[in-house]
Amino acid sequence: MDVINASALSALFTGYRILFQQAYDAAPSYWERVAMLVPSTTSEEHYPWLGDIADLREWIGDRVVNSLALHDYAIRNKKYEKTIGVKRDAVEDDTYGIFGPRFAMLGDNAKRHPDKLIFALLKAGFATACYDGQYFFDTDHPVTVNGVTSSVSNYGGGTGAAWYLLDTSRPVKPLIYQLRRAYNLVRLDRDTDSNVFMRDELLYGVDGRSNVGFGFWQMAYASKAELNADNYAAARAAMQSLTNEAGSSLAIMPNLLVVPPSLEGAGRKLLKNEFNAAGATNEWFGTAELLSVPYLA
After folding, report:
1. What value does the mean pLDDT take over residues 202-206?
2. Contact criterion met (CB below 8 Å) for 200 and 90
3. Distance (Å, rounded) from C-alpha 94 to C-alpha 122?
4. What is residue 71's three-state secondary structure?
5. pTM of the complete model
6. How many helices (H) and strands (E) does the chain have?
């Protein structure tokens, strides 16, 4: 590039942005399968309504006002960024094209970042509290039914690789992806920018604000026991037995089995094979979708 002027720099940034966006659009994403998107308008969002899975009742006489127990559960947004420096000499020598793959990777990384946050949180659910103060996957969730409080479990125990059975069919998902500001590619490449003046370096970066949190623990069950028919059946039964405060079924219908790559084979045998190893009908065939997630490895 013989002349580095405003027009040339604009064209350079446009090229990088195209590479970024193409890679962003092409990258796979899994978080929407297990989490709901919640737009954020401030630094921190509160979710006092978590825990309310009340059912309708027949209207006889006056309305019955149900006073909700407000939960002090909040998700504070965090900032994330990645910045790339391109030496001005590289632009002058017309070799800036060698940086193209870096901008493509930047777009790929930006698309995958919510997945990394969401599934890191899922893995941490055995030791991270949700709205009721208990770990998200726990044996001691306090549940009150007809005035009697007892402990309810959504954890199957074990010591092996964890697998997760989820109900993702409801408006509120097991996990929350809270988005304050979407990822955006920006530039500092004008002659008047301090980095160009002081270090002869053009800067390009992506940044955004977001965070993740837990939704309803009732929509999720985790186990570190062997992924087999018996343990899968126990997980489904535990989820489907849950009731609301009036004792009515929550109608939980597990529809997604999430596994690390090491358990993909076991998951396929359980959900994809019409017959078991003995040739008998596999009663769990097709009862849930299988999602193998590399971030759970």
Report:
1. 90
2. no
3. 46
4. coil
5. 0.88
6. 6, 13
